[in-house]
Structures are given as structure tokens and as C-alpha cells.
Amino acid sequence: MKRMNNDMAVSPIVATLVLIVVAVIGAVAVGTIMGTFSTSVSKNVNANQASSASQTELLIAGSTTVSPITEAAGALYTQLNPGVKITNQAIASGAGIQAVGNGVADIGETSDPANPRWTNQFPQLQPHLIGYGIIAIITNAADPANQSATYVSYADLQQTFAPSTTAKNGMPAYTGTYTTLSTSTVPVGRADSSGTASVFYKFLGATPDAVTGSYQQSTLAAPGGELVNGNMGVISTVGATHYAIGYADYGDAVNAASSANGATPSVIILPYTDGTGAATWTPASGGAPGWYMLNQSSSAYFNAGDWASTADITNMWNAFRGEVKEMNYYTVEQPQTDNGLYPQTSKHAQGVYNLSLIRPLTYWTNGAPNTAEQNFITFVQTNPQNAAGIGVFQATNNFGLPDVA
Fold first, then answer.
1. Domain carrying residue 251
2. Could you give the C-alpha distances from 215 to 82, 247, 278, in angstroms and in order?
3. Could you tell me if 143 and 92 lie in one domain?
């Protein structure tokens, strides 16, 4: 019994030692497992953080004219800089200013000259000129609005896009009497806060809105007039509406007016004349339909229907390029700027081309651009080339700074 008692007495000790050993071994094992798991999680977290740290996204928003340039340049930039993602949203110039001014977007896009009200609202905004664009007057290809002439007059454009039957904002009242357009003409304008619309209405002689400072009108007087969003909205509506007339970015309009790729054109780009000496595209001498860009200097003529080949489009772009260059710089030796956009030596700064359908294409940043923003802006300003060796501005029928320097 004693021995049994001794055995019984030893057993708890052994059992306790065994439990201690098991506990220690278990703790080490669990610690090892948890340590391994923790290390694995830590590695994954660190890898994700490193990936996130190396991935930069720039949100760019604004003008539907600038948007195709940003899209093309952004794709090229990401190829060269895989850690940078360029996200672009075409929401119109005014909305782009609000987005960047309120810190929602990194860069805003506009297609009209700087509006003092933008910088009054957001004093920290800084402009960065990237190039130039042109506005084209377009009409329906199947049933053009210019039924009685080979062009459209400045007076008829004023009346068609007048805001009401009462003279307003410097625009004449709509009376329904035209000299170059059909009485069935349907004007198509922009409903959004568009830089294209603002430049167009300034060209027609409107005065800026007292509240917004924009030249854009919010209503159309002519019967059946439509207001739509974006350049492509105007082009598609004009192309689908009998006797419609509208205004849109030249780069977008070229594609819809061209038969170079075998497509049937949906719109025609109209020549026009104003008789006031403003910068215009007018019929060639002798009354023949054609282009006479900025009648002060150009001698290149093109028929309104000259869109049958890529060569025609290239020739047209080259003719416009000379005019944009003349408008932009007298010389390239003096880089001083007027309001951050126009060189002081340019005709625009001197007021020669205040009435013009050539307009600046601009990026805006909320204060001084950071490194990522500046790198992309500088990249776009160089007019990078796509795989076919064509600059992104030429590819979208716009004009980069190297084109006009």
C-alpha cells in the first residue's frame, strides 16, 4: 500500500511535469504558428502598402474638348510610367473648374480663356496652357440649314442662337428672318457649363452673364432648338436632325464630316462670313464655297466638302495651324505671358483676335502643382506621339504648343 501510495504520490508530480512540458511545447508551437502567420500577414500588408505607395492616380476633369487629348496622352504616359494611373472625366469646362477648385479633381480642363470669376472664387487656381483648339459651325449633312447660300452669315448665326425674341446680352432678337439659312433651321447648343459655348457666344457679340461671367446662353429662341451636353452631343444631334445647325470642337466635327474612312458624313462643316473683320472662315473670292481662314492673312482655300481623304484633312489642319501660330506668337523669344495664358507678343493679347473661334486649351491646378501633376502637365505640353508617330494634338485635330511655337 505504501508503495502504491508512493506510486500514487509520484504520479501527480510526473503528470504536472508532463503538463508543463506539453504546455511549453504547445506554447512554442502556437507561438511559432502565430509568428509564421503574423509574418505572412505582415509581408502581405507591407507588399500591399508598397504597391499602394508606388501607384499614383491623377483625376483630371472638365472640358469635353480637352478630354480626348487627356485620354490619348494619359494612355501614353501610363505606358512610360506604369505606377501612374490617369483617370479622366469629361464634365465640361465649368464643372472642371469647380472640381479642381473644391479639391475633388487634381487637374481641371477648360477650353476657353480664363474667366476672372474662376480665380475670384478660387484664388489659388493656377493655369497651365497646353495648346489650342478651333470651333467649327456644323449643319446636318442630309438636310443642311444653309438652304439659300453656300455659307452662313454672321448675322444669321447671331439671330439663330439669340437667347429670346427680345434683344439680350448684346445679341439681336430672333425674328425668323434669315439671309443664308432656312426658316426651318433648328439650332443646337450646349446645356452644360461649356467653354466651347462661352467662346462661341463671345464670338457672336454677347456680353458675359452678370452672375457667372460666362458668355454662354441657357436658352435658344429659334423653334425646335435643343440644348445638349458635350461636343459629341451637339454633333450627334445635328447629324440626326433635319436643318439643324450647331457649334462644336473642330477635332470632333472633322470625324463626323469626313468620308475618309468610307463612312457617310453626318454633318457638314460650314464656312461663314461676318463682314466685320473678325477672325472668320469665309467663302473664297468669287462666291465659290470654300474656306478662307482669318481673312486678314490666309490664302488657302478649301471647299466645304473637301473631306474625302486623309490628305484633305491634313491640308486643312496645316492651314489652320498657320493661323493659330500667328495668333499665338509674334516671336518665341519672349516667353512673358498675359494672364498666364497668352504671350504678350501675341495678337490675342493685343486685342487683334478678340473675336475668334480659336481658343486656348488649359489645365488648372489647385495652387502650385505637385510633382506628379507637374510631370503629367509637362508631358502633355510636349505633344507626345502615339505609336503611329502622330502627336496627340494632331491626332485629335487640335494644336499643341510645339505646333505653334
1. 134-324
2. 41, 14, 17
3. no
Helix (H/G/I), strand (E/B), else coil: 255:
helix
Query: Angle formed by the axes of helices 371-381 and 67-80, to 10°?
Result: 110
For 170: left if phi > 0, alpha if psi spans -120 to 50, otherwise beta; the answer is: left
The answer to whether residues 309 and 196 belong to one domain is yes
Residue type at position 388: A
C-alpha cell at 375: 510631370
Cα distance from N-terminal residue to C-terminal residue, the chain: 113
In a shared domain, residues 72 and 175: no
Domain co-membership, 73 together with 31: no
Q: Is residue 270 classed as helix, strand or coil in its secondary structure?
A: strand
**CATH code, 377:** 3.40.190.10
Q: Which residues lie below 8 Å from residue 195, measured CB to CB, with a gap of 6+?
A: 63, 65, 92, 93, 94, 110, 111, 112, 359
pLDDT value at residue 368: 97
pLDDT band at 376 (very low <50, low <70, confident <90, very high): very high
Residues 310/390, Cβ–Cβ less than 8 Å? no
Helix/strand number for the chain, H first, E second: 12, 14
Helix spans in 103-230 (H): 116-121, 154-160, 195-203
Q: Helices 250-257 and 231-240 meet at what angle, rounded to 10?
A: 30
The total number of structural domains that make up the chain: 3
**CB-based burial of residue 139 (10 Å sphere; 0-12 exposed, 13-18 middle, 19+ buried)?**
buried
- What is this structure's pTM? 0.76
Which grid coordinates are listed for 215? 458668355
Element (H, E) at 252: helix 250-257
State whether 96 and 207 are in the same domain: no
Instruction: Find the range with the poorest average confidence among 200-204, 253-257, 282-286, 342-346.
Output: 282-286
112 and 165 fall within a common domain: no
Q: Does 157 share its domain with 209? A: yes
